[in-house]
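INTERNAL AUDIT FORM
Audit reference: QA-55
Scope: verify that the stored structure record matches its stored sequence.
Auditor: D.O.
Record contents follow.
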Amino acid sequence: MIKVDIQRTEQGKVKAFTLSGHANFAKRGQDIVCAGVSAVSFGAINSIIALTKVTPRIKQGENGGYLHCEIPMIEDQTVEEKVQLLLEGMIVSLQTIEKEYGKYIQITEK
């Protein structure tokens, strides 16, 4: 199972997220749950970098199955709002996957 942990500030803003585990929906290379989660999460990170010029701190496992992304402090409120919108969009997409494939992905928010 893929576990997604969303960490929020006291104000409710996303400050970090961690993905860990494997979906095991299908064999490697054919796992649509894993592919979907990877596409959504990496797409969000790439969008943040390309569209806002903010570079999150990222840690990845060598063999896959682990991704941690931490958002740095952002001084410009407009840029921060854009980053948060992209992250909230990622969460909505992951929740959509969870609704359909809840046996293979679990999202928690702190």
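Auditor finding: record pair retrieved intact. The chain has a mean pLDDT of 96.
Action required: none
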